[in-house]
């Protein structure tokens, strides 16, 4: 039997963007991020994509780095 992954893996927030009023929503592949942008803008949000910074991956999450480097972080603000 395989044990469930109990890692508390967490990506580090960009404090600079948070301080400017941006809220981190999630990490997505570029196609999904573009769809999200359209939806958020319809709701009146500004949308900002930040290339995924693999240096912001905590030590126990290094195995995910190669996959996540293809993604972007989606931030929004009113």
Number of helices: 3
Please tell me the overall pLDDT: 83
* Alpha-carbon distance between the two ends: 47 Å
Number of DSSP E strands: 3
Sequence stretches where pLDDT stays below 50 over 5 or more residues? 1-7
- Structural domain count: 1
Oligomer: single chain
By secondary-structure content and strand pairing, the structural class works out as alpha+beta
Strand content: 15-25%
- One letter per element, helices H and strands E, the order comes to HEHEHE
Strand adjacency order, main sheet: 1-3-2
What is the overall silhouette?
Answer: flat
- Gyration radius over CA: 14 Å
Largest beta sheet, briefly?
Answer: 3 strands, antiparallel
Helix content: 25-40%
Describe the structure.
6% of the residues are buried. The chain has one domain. It has 78 residues and is an alpha+beta fold. The protein has 3 helices and 3 strands, in the order αβαβαβ. The protein is 28% helix and 23% strand.
Task: Set out the fold topology.
Layout: H1 15-19, E1 23-28, H2 30-42, E2 46-51, H3 65-68, E3 72-77
Antiparallel strand pairs: 1-3, 2-3
Notable features of this structure?
alpha+beta, 3-stranded antiparallel sheet, 23% strand
Quick recap:
By secondary structure, the protein is α+β, with helices and mostly antiparallel strands.
């Amino acid at each position: 039997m395989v044990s469930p992954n109990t890692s508390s893996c967490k990506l580090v927030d960009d404090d600079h963007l948070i301080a400017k009023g941006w809220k981190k929503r999630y990490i997505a592949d570029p196609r999904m991020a573009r769809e999200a942008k359209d939806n958020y803008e319809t709701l009146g949000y500004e949308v900002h994509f930040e290339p995924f910074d693999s240096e912001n991956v905590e030590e126990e999450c290094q195995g995910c780095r190669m996959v996540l480097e293809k993604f972007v972080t989606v931030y929004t603000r009113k």
